Amino acid sequence: MDLMANGFAEALRLFASADREIVDITILSLKVSGGATLISAVFGVAAGAALALNSFPGKRVIVGIVNTGMGLPPVVVGLWVTLFIWRSGPAGQLGLLYTPTAIVVAQVIIALPIITGISLAAIQNIPEKLRFQILALGAGRVRYLMLLVREARLPLLAGIMAGFGGALSEVGASIMVGGNIRGYTRVLTTATVMETGRGNFETAIALGLILLTVAFVINYGLTAIQQRIRS
Amino acid sequence: MGRILEAHGLRADRRAMPVLRVGEFYLDEGEFLSLVGPNGSGKTTLILALLRLIPLREGTVLFRGKEIGRISPAHRYRRSFAAVFQDALLLNTTVYENVAEGLRIRRTGRRETDLAVMKNLERFGISHLKSRNAARLSGGESQRVSLARAFALSPEILFLDEPFAALDAPTKETVIRDFETALKESPAAVIMATHDMGEALRLSRRVAVMREGSILQTGVPEELMRRPADEFAAAFFGYETILSGIVSGTFDGSFTVSVNGRTVEIAGEAGAGSLVTFSISPENIMLSGGPVGTVSARNTFQGRIERIILAGFYYRVRVDCGFPLVSYITGHSMELMKLREGGEIYATFKSTAVHVLQVR
User: Fold this and answer.
1) pTM here?
2) Cys-Cys link to B277, which of A103, A119, B244, B341 (CB 3.0-4.6 A)?
3) pLDDT tens digits, residue range B280-308?
């Protein structure tokens, strides 16, 4: 119990002192996971809509892959991204290994199927007759897609929240492709793992609490938007 | 009056099953055409096909002589149309935005959009709901929004797919009345799918009867009601007395048919020995306590009342005369004649009131 109480006390101390390193780690976490979520949202919503609205041979296989991807183990993503950007790998000359960009790439691979899968379900869930009605109003392709996205904005926002959660909370891929380099690629999750490994439980608990707080604040903001749309 | 819409050789399939087979179809400027038929007869499919919202296996749809989707995309043509479906199908936004959306798609100016939206919200008595989310409306209010949205577009053709079917009777009456008023001020031609003959007869200038994806019969409502094309159409129009029998005698301008050992005289021509199917509308069958000697009706049969059913403002009486006959009588007549199930009755109808559906 002392360990936990000390952890909370340390967390409060870190919050109060606005420890520079912790602030930098938090900002990097937000930048990396926020960037990955933004990229995944743009491509994921588009891919989900494309899958929902078109029929083509092999669609079922692709949807199966997307759904499998929604539960992709981060360490597997980390392994494959590492192999890909390893100095002798296919994209080795880009020099991405152990950079924040590499973490973004890995987190996009984690968040993209989540957002695509939920977007697919959200758009598919719009009744066919409402789609007909939108077309009957004279909507062209672009307007049609915009109105469908607007109609499905509640579940789409839920998908983006899930994608952000997946990106922010994963650790395996970030540690493998980012290397947890102090002041450069260290993010909240990798720092938590490191401090736990060192036996610095107070710091680890504090970092975990900061991570939870960040996740809560972001999701609370998105939920507020979602519920305002609903009402 | 020119043709505004034509279709030739329409054929659509769903899961390799034919769902639409319409050889020729047309709609004139300002005309009101109803597509009638039971559920699954292809009315909605025809509307979706004419709007080019479902893929056609074969066939062409022409708007003012130009093939839809051939030279410019179908959505450009659809901007001359408006559609209202059975479910109001409103977007998850305010009532105002719903009515304005189609105008925005047409890039109508802000002021013009506002005028058109407000005019139509007022026309359908929903201007007080303009800021309300469309998801929070009642069924009647939603359908009014849907109709306001359609009329705000000043369409050249208005497609209606069972627009009043989901409404309760009193709401339906007020919505139809507002719709009729709006339509009087609009030059739009209308195609309405309905399974309700009452709606079709009230609103249409021409009616097309549909069955299994095909148009079975087209005509003005009175003509269709008097002369249904076949047994299916007769049953759909509400003819409950549909009988078959063999021609037992022919005379000058009439013939007799033997039905379950009873002889029915029918005006017209048919060869002896042919199998004739015919119908008699309920208002043409007169019921009486005894034989009616003074009327010119050729057919009088004694029978027993099988069933009396209250059907709104009248009673539906089913009589067994060796074959079944259905007549409607008022409550006042019921009381005067003291009718009861199992009682004796005489049913009388003229030979000219019999409509021959088929002679084989």
Assistant:
1) 0.83
2) B244
3) 999 899 999 877 766 667 899 999 999 99
